[in-house]
Amino acid sequence: MSTHTPATRATVGTAFRPASAAAVGALAGAVARLHLPGDARYAELTVTSNITKAVRPLAVVEVTSPDEVSATLRIATASGVPVAVASTGHGATETMADAILVHTAALDELEIHAAQRWARVGAGVRWAAVLEAAAPHGLAGLCGSSTDVGVVGFLTGGGVGPLARSHGLSSDTVRAFDVVTGDGEIRRASATENPELFWGLRGGKGSLGIVTAVEIDLVELPEVYGGAIWFDGADATAVLRTWSVWTDLLPEEGTTSIAVMRLPDMDPFPEPLRGRTTIALRFVWTGDPAVGEEMIRAMRAVATPLIDAVGVMPYSAIGAVHSDPDDPMPLHESSLLLDEFGPDTADVLVDLVGPDAQTAQAMVEVRQLGGAVRRGPDSAFAHREAAYQVFAIGLMIPEIAQVVVADSRRIVGALAPWARDGGLPNFTDTAGVGWARRVYSPAVAARLGTLSRRFDPAGVLLAGRGVRD
Ligand SMILES: Cc1cc2nc3c(=O)[nH]c(=O)nc-3n(C[C@H](O)[C@H](O)[C@H](O)COP(=O)(O)OP(=O)(O)OC[C@H]3O[C@@H](n4cnc5c(N)ncnc54)[C@H](O)[C@@H]3O)c2cc1C
């Protein structure tokens, strides 16, 4: 048996140790910032927000230019070593064992073109920085519930944010990507340049290339009417039943989600919400605030809130609507898409996770989709038609870890009568073929597979494996 991996092999496979050593040795001479296991910077760049998803790559290349991304891909291909990409570690799904990790933290360019309402954003930039830079111009970028998330990681997964129903899928605002495809070529992808690649990068995550910068439309939106209202768990049935009917009538200017929470009795959680079951109603209205206030009146009237924090707010504070924790934690995540969420579904959810239920989930959230998400250009995001998404998070502390997993299956099973096949790329935390089957329709997966063979002929990109196997 050969002890090295030939540079000409058709597909990059599991690396032999000599191949790994060769790749790391070649990278040391080709890139400025190479971090190896044991280095402090390696440790910093491999932190994941879900600590059950630890990543342990052979080496981390902290790229400073598209040329370095290209060099890394070519060296890895020649050595038969796969390549992964990350910017914040918020969406880690693979262990990256035997792979080189391209980390984009240093690609931090950020330009706001206020007059033309667009931004150019480096692949290492988080949404918080874009919002801060755009806010003085009264402009907004369509981020997700947490502004700590990376712009490119979010957009390549479609991006369903707190303005999804009024403004659509965030990836629909992408004008162009600068990307290094798996073959090491530096390319631009837009509606007119490499349009097939442009199609695939909006939903295809890192399966076709490593994005180095993205150009996005900004919307004129200095303020929104929105926030969260927290109810006691004892009101769960009334709140969830009303929400199930209210969402059917809510115009597209309103985006909403509701979450049954069991927050631990500790800081930093606000005192009225700790150590008990609560219901968080999230609402963002992008039309006239007075109309938004009318719209939320029916929900406000259901029960006496523990906290009512809905009002006019600067768009730059949009992260407060969901108040997602950003600290690393051990999490189990599960999700499913629904075609409907009516009063019957609400009752089942209360039985499953309401105040009297035995559940190991810290949060079970239902997001209403629809509205402008259903429209927009054709892209590799495959589930525009879903009406709702359910997303459950359990804390994987050793004493209850097995129960958390079984409990999440119980929830998914009980909601099956209203479910539809599929999952959203940004909320499906598996990897490989299983991930691709869940996230893409067969037609989208096949088209991505064809593009992967064209733009990454050696199959060097770890994220492409799901669509080409
Ligand atoms: C607290 C929290 C709230 C969230 N809220 C939402 C939400 O409201 N809506 C939503 O849609 N998602 C949401 N997400 C999911 C999030 O959008 C995904 O996890 C996303 O992949 C994170 O991207 P990242 O770059 O921050 O993470 P990373 O772990 O650094 O990257 C995750 C993946 O993104 C892709 N990627 C990253 N950089 C590049 C690149 N340069 N080129 C190509 N691919 C790349 C790769 O596939 C990579 O594996 C949330 C996540 C968290 C942790």
Tell me what the structure shows.
It comes from Cellulomonas rhizosphaerae. Residues 53-221 form the FAD-binding PCMH-type domain. Its cofactor is FAD. Pfam families: FAD_binding_4. This is FAD-binding oxidoreductase. By secondary structure, the chain is of the alpha+beta class. The protein folds into 3 domains: 17-103, Uridine Diphospho-n-acetylenolpyruvylglucosamine Reductase, domain 3 (2-Layer Sandwich), CATH 3.30.465.10; 110-220, Uridine Diphospho-n-acetylenolpyruvylglucosamine Reductase, domain 3, CATH 3.30.465; 224-425, Vanillyl-alcohol Oxidase, Chain A, domain 3 (3-Layer(aba) Sandwich). Helices cover 29% and strands 24% of the residues. It contains 14 helices and 19 strands. It has helices at 17-30, 40-45, 66-79, 127-134, 151-155, 164-167, 195-201, 236-249, 289-300, 343-353, 401-414, 432-439, 442-455, 465-468, and strands at residues 34-35, 59-62, 83-86, 100-103, 110-113, 118-122, 139-140, 174-181, 186-190, 209-217, 219-220, 223-232, 254-262, 277-285, 307-314, 331-338, 361-368, 388-395, 419-420. Strands 15-12-14-13-17-18-16-19 form an 8-stranded antiparallel β-sheet. A hairpin with a 4-residue loop joins β5 (110-113) and β6 (118-122). α8 packs antiparallel against α10. The chain is globular. The two termini are 25 Å apart. Mean pLDDT is 95; it is low at 1-10. Bound molecules: flavin-adenine dinucleotide (FAD). Flavin-adenine dinucleotide (FAD) is lined by residues 49, 85-92, 104, 123, 144-146, 149-150, 152-154, 156-157, 159-161, 205-206, 210-211, 324, 426, 463.
